[in-house]
């Protein structure tokens, strides 16, 4: 019996996989060797959207961490009032700060309600770490971040992110 992706070139599979969610990419990578190779291809990860509401919980270390180096533009959604979602977002940002020098764009979006009297210091420190480490970061979109930015972060973003 032929492998499921045997007839399709890796480039075509990569074009398809780039539109899948993280959970679906992980499932596709388990189908066969050809699909696993295509799912970890750098083209799949250039523009990535990650929702920490359900996708990342328990998924970061093995599968996603192998592909972080390929991410150029990241849209990260999380819910600050849910501890697992917030923890996953912070963990991802901190890992990204250490492993993704090719990151060019970062867009953070808070979903749901922000807890009362929460300054978001932990989230802002993670953003600060990414801004300091990602030398190619050119676009930083924090408009949907529900925390007040501190002066140091604003100055760092102004210096390193022209857009």
UniProtKB/TrEMBL annotation:
<protein>
    <submittedName>
        <fullName>F-box and leucine rich repeat protein 8</fullName>
    </submittedName>
</protein>
<dbReference type="InterPro" id="IPR036047">
    <property type="entry name" value="F-box-like_dom_sf"/>
</dbReference>
<dbReference type="InterPro" id="IPR001810">
    <property type="entry name" value="F-box_dom"/>
</dbReference>
<dbReference type="Pfam" id="PF12937">
    <property type="entry name" value="F-box-like"/>
</dbReference>
<dbReference type="InterPro" id="IPR032675">
    <property type="entry name" value="LRR_dom_sf"/>
</dbReference>
<keyword id="KW-0833">Ubl conjugation pathway</keyword>
<feature type="domain" description="F-box">
    <location>
        <begin position="2"/>
        <end position="48"/>
    </location>
</feature>
